[in-house]
Design goal:
Elements (H helix, E strand, L loop, with lengths): L3 H12 L8 H9 L4 E4 L6 H11 L3 E5 L3 H13 L4 E4 L5 H12 L5 E4 L1 H5 L3 H7 L2 E6 L19 H7 L5 E5 L4 H10 L6 E4 L7 E7 L3 H10 L5 E5 L3 H13 L4 E4 L5 H12 L5 E4 L12 E6 L6 H8 L9 E7 L1 H11 L5 H19 L4 H8 L13 H4 L4 E3 L1 H16 L7 H8 L5 H5 L16 H13 L3 E3 L7 E3 L1 H8 L5 E3 L19 H18 L3 H4 L2 H10 L4 H5 L6 H20 L26 H11 L4 H8 L3 H13 L12 H11 L8 H6 L6 H14 L1
Parallel strand pairs: 1-6, 1-7, 2-4, 2-5, 3-4, 5-6, 8-13, 9-11, 9-12, 10-11, 12-13
Antiparallel strand pairs: 14-17, 15-16
Helix pairs in contact: 1-3, 2-3, 14-15, 18-19, 18-22, 19-21, 23-25, 23-27, 28-30, 29-30, 30-33
The protein binds adenosine-5'-diphosphate (ADP) and magnesium ion.
Amino acid sequence: MIASPQLADLLKRHFGYDSFRPLQRDIMEQALADRDTLAILPTGAGKSLCYQLPALARDGLTVVVSPLIALMKDQVDQLTASGIPATFLNSTLDPQENRDRLAAIRAGEIKLVYLAPERLMSGDFLSIVRTWKVTALAVDEAHCISEWGHDFRPEYRRLRELREALPGVPVIALTATATPRVREDIVTQLSLQDAAVFVASFNRPNLNYLVEPKQDATARLVQFIKSRGMDSGIVYAQSRKRTEELAATLRNSGIPAICYHAGLEAPERARNQEAFLRDEVRVVCATVAFGMGINKPDVRFVIHADLPKNIEGYYQETGRAGRDGLPADCLLLYSRGDVAKYLRFLDEIPDEEAREHSRKQLDQMADFAESDQCRRIGLLGYFGEIWPQDNCGACDNCLAPRETWDATIEAQKFLSCILRVKQSGHPPVGIRHLCDILTGSRAEKIIAKNHDNLSTYGIGREHNTNKWAEIARQLARKGLIAIDSGNFPTVTITADGLTLLRERRPLSLTRLMATEKSRAPRAGEIECDLALFDRLRALRKQLADAASVPPYVVFSDVALRHMARDYPTTDAAFLRIPGVGERKLTDYGQAFIGLIGAFLENHERRTFASLTGIAPFPPKPPKPATNPTAQVTLELYRAGKSIAEIAKERGLVESTIESHLATAIAQGEPLDPRSFYTESEEQEVRAALEGYTEEALKPVFDHLGGRISYGKIKLFRAFQARQA
Ligand code: ADP
Ligand code: MG
């Protein structure tokens, strides 16, 4: 088996990262032990690396099957930019190009080759594959093999033949689709033998979930997007026409936007997607057709301008935000009207079972949107995962718990108004009409129907019609009024409503406030010098255009933010930036270091709070560890040995070495938390330890589902103890 330190070394050298994301290392170790492996990790978890890094660590060629041509090119561009010999074969290549690439593969010059599944079908392609020295097979987006998944591709079924053509070659399958049915299908269809299966938490800590009532939706969209500087985002809408209208509105407001839907001709679709990936437009207004091919890591917001049809879709679509781990916002504009609209649409589905299934899904979606509970609890609960805290700190309901207010009088006014209309002999009217009566509107329909003569006319001038409509929706949710679902939904009072009115019972409602952005630090946030960041971004765009690749192929926003924080002006300092490997130092180091140097000539260097919330150095000079055996461990660690190496050398188990280091840390030894665990692991542990004062670590370890080792938890505690 390949030792972990070697993987860590490859990770830094080629990709410029200092640490693994949760599960990455475990997955790689299994794959390198030539075991069939299935990795189910959410979007943005870093699945690609799980087969790319092992490909570098082993001899021979890794064949990667990936469903979309655009995605393939993107991945190969990124690998090439990191100095890794990779290529792809698909139908877009001309014959000469195809021949050249095949020759390079045969000559052993390539470590990873991406194949489109349709390629497997063509002629004697499998007999060509048999002649290669293939040592691993990776199947990305493996859910495409299942009819139960949302992106079924019949070509993926041919993978069985590819497996047969490569006997004894281990497979690693990767997907972000968690449903058990799809998972089982992957195992069967790919004939995975005794597979190591990894399932990560589906929580996306850096995503902030917001739901707002849909009112003046266009104005709200413009305002929301404008408040986000140069950030890129996606606006999902339900119809093609609406995506076009929204894009036009945004453009008229000075926001570079385009639309994307299945009705566009293929070249225009490709062009629009490319413009978005290359940061030439900020916003794509799209239907759900815009999806899987979007590997853009720096999508900073996803807005649902219309209600998604089910929670799974909502999760998938919001999941496209924040792949890079920096904070991102997911805004859902919710209206009961959308629900009513889809219900009418669902009425047309002839098959009863299908209709009821869709209705149920829609109900769950509406419940999620209307709930005042933590959004994470709702979302993860849908996937059968239990979110352990009451306050996630990153959704509207947790950030700004809704205030309640005494709405006894308002309820009486509204309910009486329904009764007065009824007593006047008029058939039931809709919410708007009732609101117009209450606010004393002079609208024609009110005057024509003599509704300005009702005793409730104008008795609710203290609120505008929108406020009254919101009150009405809450009354409906509480079962005090019923809104039927015709073409013109009308309102009637229920038995409960009558009781409330007759017995003058008190009623409180919650305020739906537009959520203010919280100032608490957000998961994944990296504070930096924004003036420098903007310049780095401009340089990145220039270099990317010259190389004809999307900007994130040059550097991610994470890398730029670290540069705009640490101001690296030497090669050594530049190499310490996450995302800077050897190749990127060679290709881009000079340009970026030059820019940073020039910037510092006429700008003050700013300092920022520690990313980990832990002071980088203790106030006092470190005392030597008192325990002599711990002292030996510490010396070895200072000398650059890894925990595993020290354990081996001293004939002790790793957890003992970790305890030694934890003691040293608690006593002030200036070690870097990042050399032990990643930022996201740290966040998980921090959350799990919140309010936990016991010594025993087992409950915490179990609570984290065994994802994070005892050693890491112990080390984290030591850093905390030092801070206290
Ligand atoms: P997935 O396929 O799971 O959605 P990707 O493989 O596209 O995720 O990775 C998402 C982002 O995370 C990429 O920008 C990638 O470079 C970054 N990434 C992956 N692994 C690490 C790591 N260990 N440290 C830092 N960034 C990482
Ligand atoms: Mg992926």
